[in-house]
């Protein structure tokens, strides 16, 4: 699987040493993640993204441009050959677990008990099980059992 690599930090990175901050700088706004979500669900055209999200045309144009420039989406000729369509790259598909984790958090915390919501299912129609990060020994990991190790400055 190919990896998109940013060679040098941008001057405007929120926190150039933090992978979370860099990721949020790339996809941390509401619309970008909704575009990625819909691309994962089969949206390909500008019109489909706009219809599914309700996003204003100018904002959608900017998000598609930025997601393409950062290597999360690619443009290709649509099967009709008359238009361009957007497809996820390897880097875009790598956001699946992020979208899934956000979805599962939302199912637990953004709906009242018993309130109806969409469900993500696998190819057999079975709901996707909850993601639980585990250590190499199989122990569940959370904010209480992990910490950030800062990079060391080279001398």
TrEMBL record:
Gene3D superfamilies named among the record's database cross-references: Winged helix-like DNA-binding domain superfamily/Winged helix DNA-binding domain (1.10.10.10)
Sequence segments annotated as region (Disordered): 132-155
Composition skew (Basic and acidic residues), residue ranges: 144-155
InterPro entries noted in UniProt: ArsR-like_HTH (IPR011991), HTH_HxlR (IPR002577), WH-like_DNA-bd_sf (IPR036388), WH_DNA-bd_sf (IPR036390)
A family per Pfam: HxlR
The keyword Transcription is assigned to this record: yes
CDD domains: HTH_ARSR
Domain called HTH hxlR-type: residue spans: 18-114
Keywords assigned: DNA-binding, Transcription, Transcription regulation
Protein's name according to its UniProt entry: Helix-turn-helix domain-containing protein
């Amino acid at each position: 699987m190919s990896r998109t690599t940013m060679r040098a930090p941008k001057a405007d990175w929120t926190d150039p040493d933090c992978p979370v901050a860099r990721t949020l700088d790339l996809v941390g706004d509401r619309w970008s993640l909704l575009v990625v979500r819909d691309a994962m669900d089969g949206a390909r055209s500008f019109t489909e993204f706009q219809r599914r999200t309700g996003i204003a045309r100018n904002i959608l144009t900017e998000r598609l441009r930025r997601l393409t420039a950062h290597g999360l989406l690619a443009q290709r000729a649509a099967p009709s050959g008359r238009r361009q369509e957007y497809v996820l790259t390897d880097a875009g598909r790598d956001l699946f677990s992020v979208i899934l984790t956000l979805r599962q958090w939302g199912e637990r915390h953004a709906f009242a008990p018993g309130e109806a919501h969409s469900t993500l299912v696998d190819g057999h129609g079975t709901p996707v099980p909850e993601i639980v990060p585990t250590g190499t020994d199989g122990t569940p990991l959370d904010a209480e059992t992990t910490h950030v190790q800062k990079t060391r400055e080279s001398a």
